[in-house]
Amino acid sequence: MSTTAVGRAVVRKDGIKKVTGTATYTADFRPARLAHALLVSSTVPAGKIVRLEVDPALRAPGVLAVVTHLNAPRLKSPGSMATGGEFAEHFFPLQEPEIHFWGQYVAVVVADSLERAEDAAARVRVEYAAAPFQIDMEGNAVELIEPAKAMGRKVQIERGRLAEGLGAAEVTVDETYRTPVYHHNAMEPHATIADWTDELLTIYEPTQWVMGLRSVVSKAFDPEAEKVHVISPFVGGGFGSKGFSWPHTLAAAMASRAAGRPVKLVLSRAMMFTSVGHRAATRQAVRLGATREGRLTAIKHATLTAGSIKNEYLETCGLATSMLYACPNVSVTHRLARLNTGTPCPTRAPGEAPGTFALECAMDELAVKLALDPIELRIRNHAERDPQEDKPFSSKHLLECYRRGAVLFGWDRRNAQPRSRQEKGEWIGCGMATATYPANKRDGSAAVRIYGDGRVVVRSATHDLGTGTYTTLAQVAADALGVPLERVSCELGDSLLPKAGVSGGSSTSASVAPMVQEAAQKLRAKLEKFSSLTEAVADSGTGFVEAEAETGRMAAAAAELVKKGPSTHSFGAQFVEARVNIATRQVRVSRVVSVIDAGRILNPLTARSQIQGGIVWGIGMALLEHTDWDPSRGYPVTRNLADYLVPVNADIPDITVEFTDYPDLQFNSVGVRGIGEIGITGTVAAVANAVYNACGVRVRDLPVSLTKLLA
Ligand code: MOS
User: Fold this and answer.
1) Ligand 1 pocket, 350 CB below 6 A?
2) Which residues are identified as catalytic?
3) Could you tell me which residues come within 8 angstroms of residue 547 by beta carbon, excluding any fewer than 6 positions away?
4) If you ran DSSP here, which 8-state letter would residue 45 be given?
5) C-alpha–C-alpha distance, residues 411 and 576, integer Å
6) Is residue 596 helix, strand or coil?
7) Does ligand 1 have an atom closer than 6 angstroms to the CB of 247?
C-alpha cells in the first residue's frame, strides 16, 4: 500500500460547506408542511403533577396538538447499550405525572409557526405537589449506591494490600479534590425534525450514534427498525451529549404523530443545562504513599459522584489510576449519590478528565514533598506493562512524551520554588501532568464504491462530529485504492448506510478506518479482474462497483482479545505555563505544550485540532466552567453562556501539539488510536500545578478562581 494521503495535513473535505453555511445541520432541513414544537418543562425538582390544563393552549391560534402524560401513546422499551442503543434518561417522557428533576418535560405543544407554539406553550397550566428533593451529593439524606460496574467495566478495584503499602510509605499525600458539574455546551443545540407517516418515521437529529437512535426510537414506539430512518450528516459538537438518545426526540416523534405533520423541535440553550446530560460533580479522596526515592507504595482513589434518581450513570474517575503507574498496592472505589437532576452522561473524556485532575495534582503534591522534579517522579513510577491487567501495552511511548515535551516546553528553565519568577506584575509558574485515555474500538462496517467516472464514495453510518471523519476516512480509502484523495468523498451519518457504532469513547477512527481500508482493498481486487473500470461498472449493472467490510464477529473477538490481547491505551504529557497577577490573582494560561502518543496519525491537521480542542476544554474546566444549582429551589442557576463561562480566544494561548506517531498495528490494521478525548486529560491538573508553582496556592476545588488564590 502506497501511503500518499494518510499522514498528510489536508484540509477538511467539509470545510467549505461549513464556512459558507451550506452544511445542512438538523434545524436546516425543511420538509414540506413543517410544523413547530415546543416543550413545556417542570418548575419543581421533585413531586407530582396534580392538575394539568391544556384547553387554553388547544384553543390558541395555529395550534395543532398538545401531548402530555394524559394523552401520550404508551412507550414500550428503552433498549440499552446491549441491544444497540442507549436511552439516557431511564424513564420515558410524558408517561406519568411524577417529576424527578426541574426541567423535566411535561408537555409538547405543536403549532403552525414557532411564535404560535410559544404562545400556546405559555397557556399550558400545570400544578404540582412538590416533594423533598436532593441536589447536594454530600447532603445527609442522599441515597448512596456502590455500583460494581459501569459501561461494562469493573469500578471497585483492589490490587495488593493498601494498608501494607501505606505502612511502608516514607512520604504520604492525603488530600481531597473536588470538581463541579460541567456541561458539554455543544455549539449546535440538540434538535429533532420528526416526520411520521404511515410508512416511515424519519428523524433528523444531530447524533453521535444514528444506529443507536434508530434502535431506541423503534423499541420505544414499536415499529420495525427498518421503518425508522435517522439522518445526521453534520453534528455541531457532541462531546458525549449526543451519544445516548434523549427524551426530546421521542417527544418530537409523538408530536409529529399527533399533528400529522413533520415537526421541528429545537432545544433552547437553557434547556441544554437540564435535559441533555452533564458531567457529574465529583469529590475525590486521594492518598499516595511513596518511598523517599519517590517510588509509589500505595494509591487510594475514592470517588463520590452523582447520578440521577432513575439512572446510575457513573463518572469513573479512578479507572485511569488503576493502570497509570507501577504501584503494587492500589484501591479504587466509586460511590454514587442519587440526585434530583437530569441524568449525567459521558462528557468528553468521561472519568479520565476529572480523575486525572485529582491523581495528577496529588502526584504534583508528592513531588513537592519529595523535592523531586514532577517529571522524574513520573518516570520513576512508569508502568512498562499494564499493572492492573498484568499484560503488555499494545504500544506505549509515554517516556518519549515526557522527554520531548520537556524539551519543547523548556522545562529546564522552571524553578521548583513558588513565587520565584515574576514579570510585569505576574508570577509565572510551570506545571505538567500525564495524559491518558483508553483506546477503544467497536463493531463497524463500511462500503467503498467507485462510479464509472472514477469518483469514489466511502459509505458508513458513522459520524463526523466536527472531528474530521469526512476527511480522514477518504484519506484511508484513497491510499488503499491507489487513487488521488480529490476523487474520494464520504457519505456518513445516515442509518441506511452500512452500520457503525457510537462515535463516542474516541473510537471512530479505530473502528471504521480499518473497515474502509479493507473494503477498498476488496474493491481493488474486484476491479483487477476487469480490463477497465468501464467494463467493471458495465458488468455490475448498477452504475458503480462496490465492496463492503464489516467486523461481524468483533464483539465476540473483542471479548476474546480483552482476555488474551494487549492492553490498549493512549498516553501523553501536558505542559502548562500559567501567570497569576500578583495584585488581582487573575490567572491566565500563557503557553501549553502537549505531546500525544495515540498510534498512527491519519491527518496531522485535524488531529492537532482535536488535541487543541481538548486542551481548551481542560483550560475551561480548570479556570472557568461550573454549573451551580440553587440549593433551595433545585434548578441550575447558570443556564446560559453569560453565566456559564467557556473559554474564548482571549483565554487561549499558543498551544503546541506534537504526536509520537507510532502505528499501533496490534490494535488495528491502520494503526490508529482515538484522539477525541485525551487532550483534556492531564491538562486540568497541569494548569492547577502551574498555578501552584506560580503563586504557591494549591487549589483542590475547581475551578481555580481568583478568590481561591487570595492567600
Ligand atoms: Mo465521548 S464523551 O464518549 O462522546
Assistant:
1) yes
2) 677
3) 447, 448, 519, 520, 522, 523, 525, 526
4) S
5) 10
6) strand
7) no
What size, in residues, is the chain? Answer: 711
pLDDT band with cut points at 50, 70 and 90 for residue 176? very high
CB 318 less than 6 A from any atom of ligand 1:
no
Residue 347 CA, closest ligand 1 atom number? 2
Give the single-character DSSP code of 601: -
User: pLDDT by residue (tens digit) across 357-405?
Assistant: 999 999 999 999 999 999 999 999 999 999 999 999 999 999 999 999 9
* 201 grid coordinates: 418515521
The pTM assigned to this predicted structure is: 0.97
Residue type for position 546: E
Q: What gap in Å lies between CA 18 and CA 21, rounded to an integer? A: 5
Q: Judge whether 297 and 290 are in contact, CB under 8 Å.
A: yes
How far does residue 505's CA lie from ligand 1's centre (Å)?
Answer: 5
Predicted confidence band of residue 103 (pLDDT cuts 50, 70, 90): very high
- Map residue 398 onto helix, strand or coil: helix
Nearest CA to ligand 1 atom 4: 240
What is the reported pLDDT for 1? Answer: 46
- Distances from the Cα of 630 to the Cα of 188, 255, 429, angstroms: 26, 32, 35
Q: Is 438 in the pocket of ligand 1 (CB under 6 A)?
A: no
Residue 339, pLDDT above cutoff 60: yes
**146, burial (CB in 10 Å: exposed 0-12, middle 13-18, buried 19+):** exposed
Are the C-beta atoms of 395 and 599 separated by less than 8 Å?
Answer: yes
> pLDDT digits over 652-695, tens only?
999 999 999 999 999 999 999 999 999 999 999 999 999 999 99
Establish whether residue 277 lines the binding site of ligand 1, counting it when its CB lies within 6 angstroms of any ligand atom.
no
The reported pLDDT for the residue numbered 554 is 55
CA of 510 to the centre of ligand 1 (A): 15
Per-residue burial over 644-665, b if 16 or more Cβ lie within 10 Å, else e, is bebbeeebbbebbbbbbbbbbe
* Nearest CA-CA partner of 433 in 236, 64, 688: 688
Is 264 close to ligand 1, i.e. is its CB under 6 Å away? no
DSSP 636: B
In the chain, % helix, strand, coil (3-state, to 5) comes to: 30, 25, 45
Probe target for ligand 1 pocket from 677, 678, 680, 681, with the most ligand atoms within 8 Å of CB: 677
Å from CA of 4 to ligand 1 middle: 31
What residues does 636 pair with on adjacent strands? 629
